[in-house]
Amino acid sequence: MRILIVFIIAFFALQVQAQLYVLKDHRPDSAYRYNDLYDSLPAMCDTFYRAFITEDIQNLKPFVPQVKYLKSTFDTLAIEYRGEQVLYRQQLMLRLLQKEYKKVLKYIRKNKIKLKKIERKSSSYEYGKDDDGNRFCYVTVRCVRRKHTYELKYLAILLNKNWFLGDDVRFVEIE
């Protein structure tokens, strides 16, 4: 009798496991890796450099704050914004960053620069604070490829003790 009961339980367990449905074209969540928070500027700069050399504009999205994060920042600073204004500010930040990155990519393709082969040498940080007490930093990354020296420059901003990419992304060859 016991053997019969164990056999029936095992049969049902195998039957239930066999009916598991798996999607054939599983798409990852669109919010995957969106907004990694960096409380250290050098860590954010290293991650941004790795995203920059991929030449994929979608890799910049994690460096722009999400709408929820911007809203909480404005609430913390007691700034009165409606929901659509916060959304507009976030989209504006993202679009300006993408526009500047497209200009950089155009420069890179025009001059036939291979970003994957560029060696990063040094980084410098120029911290600042505006009249309202907002902190920011101008980041300059020096890169070398054979006899050519390049500089990647951008603005990083501090929002609620976390660093994000601001704007003014430039990549130029220096002599």
What would you say this structure looks like, in words?
The protein is built from four helices and five strands. By secondary structure, the chain is an alpha+beta fold. Strands 1, 2, 3, 4 and 5 form a five-stranded antiparallel sheet that branches. It is extended and about 90 Å long. It starts with a helix and ends with a strand. Residues 29-33 have low confidence and may be disordered.
Concise structural overview:
With 175 residues, the chain is of the alpha+beta class. The protein contains 4 helices and 5 strands; from the N terminus they run ααααβββββ.
Question: Which helices and strands appear, and what pairs or packs with what?
Answer:
Layout: H1 2-18, H2 41-52, H3 67-76, H4 83-110, E1 119-129, E2 135-145, E3 148-159, E4 162-165, E5 170-174
Antiparallel strand pairs: 1-2, 2-3, 3-4, 3-5
